[in-house]
Amino acid sequence: MSRRPLVAGNWKMHLLAAEARQLCEGLRAGRRPPAVDVVVFPSFPLLPVAATALAGSGIACGGQDLSPHPPGAHTGDVAAAQLVDAGAAWALAGHSERRRDHGETDDAVATKVAAACAAGLLPVLCLGERAEERRAGDTLAVLGRQLAAIAEPPPGLVVAYEPVWAIGTGDTATPEQAQQAHAFLRRRFADLAGPRRADSLRILYGGSVKPDNAAELAACPDIDGFLVGGASLDAHSFLSIIQAFA
What we know:
Helix content is 42%, strand content 15%. The chain has helices at residues 17-29, 47-53, 80-86, 96-102, 106-118, 131-135, 139-148, 175-193, 195-200, 211-218, 235-242; strands at 6-10, 37-41, 59-63, 90-93, 122-127, 158-161, 202-205, 225-228. Helix 10 packs parallel to helix 11. The chain is built from 11 helices and 8 strands. It has one domain: Alpha-Beta Barrel (TIM Barrel), CATH 3.20.20.70. An 8-stranded parallel sheet has the order 7-6-5-4-3-2-1-8. Strand 3 (59-63), helix 3 and strand 4 (90-93) form a beta-alpha-beta unit. The protein is α/β, with parallel strands linked by helices.
């Protein structure tokens, strides 16, 4: 089955409103392959800014996180319905920085995936191993555990494999390492949801993706796109990465 590539940019806790508008203008002005889906994930205050600036461009917006709870007395959290109201169509769940900084467990991430789906958001499940887990030979066990937490994978789920040791470090998984992890995740997903859905599952790679390594990674048969960090903050670099799937 031919899977439509998806390239997403995670802006993390960067940019102010004027900078976000300028970045969006650069993305609108650039050339993008028509057969590639593109999403940006601004921080919460910038989500309406980006959604307005990108309206009609074909570039979607998403939230970097969401609360598993419906609107209510949860100070500091953001409900899925609020993300939708702010212009989001997607939501990240379980990014390694959330797992690390906020102690999010596999079960907590699973509840966020469910909350995103209930609100009509498309969830991106982030998973990946830490450096010590890779050194111990536990990579596939960690990935299998994180994926299996989604007991009933919802339609439209996207998985993003981000080896934690490669996020923001300049170190990138080799194409062979990335392909091995992606192929394992597809096989494991087949056990959970059946081979047909596994064949259509989009699995993104994230971890120091740059214009100079994107094409080699994109050539791997089980890499269906990227979740880009730092390079997504520059329109030219991000557009160059998207072109890897042209």
